[in-house]
Amino acid sequence: MSPPVAAPVTAPRPASLTGGALLVLLRCVGGIIWVVSVFAQWPSIQQDLELDGVTPAVALGLLAAFQAVWIGSLALFAWFLWRGSNRARMLIMSWAAVSVTSSAISYFAAGAEITVRTTLLTVSLDILLMLALSSRDARAWTLGRRDARRELRRSRRAERASG
Asked: DSSP readout, 99-149?
């Protein structure tokens, strides 16, 4: 297998990378919809979990805070991906692989249902995300951007050292 070839900096952004960034943003939208649905169903969730007293407010606050951080992180990674970060591309693909694997493990080991309301949508988005971001075009374009950033840093360091 030949080493990956970096695309020139002037190359247009590949459609697979644009689609990948949009899929990550769709995961953000899905997270927001999930938070809204949890807030709407909180009284029944609270009864199912048998939470009483201060604990329900704390549990809901922690859940909302975690989701806010998660959604913000996803949006930030979508931005980095759009800008051509190879590291963001690799981290997003790794996260999607872990997500698909954990859904498969919960399905096979615990008998968790895979339905449209639970995990089918997220698993399908994660699979599409991995396919889009693992394309040769996406890899070459992000590697080209990475190499250009490295060269720019080297030239700036050389200027500072000589000046």
From this structure: HHHHHHHHHHHH-----TTTTHHHHHHHHHHHHHHTSHHHHHHHHHHHHHH
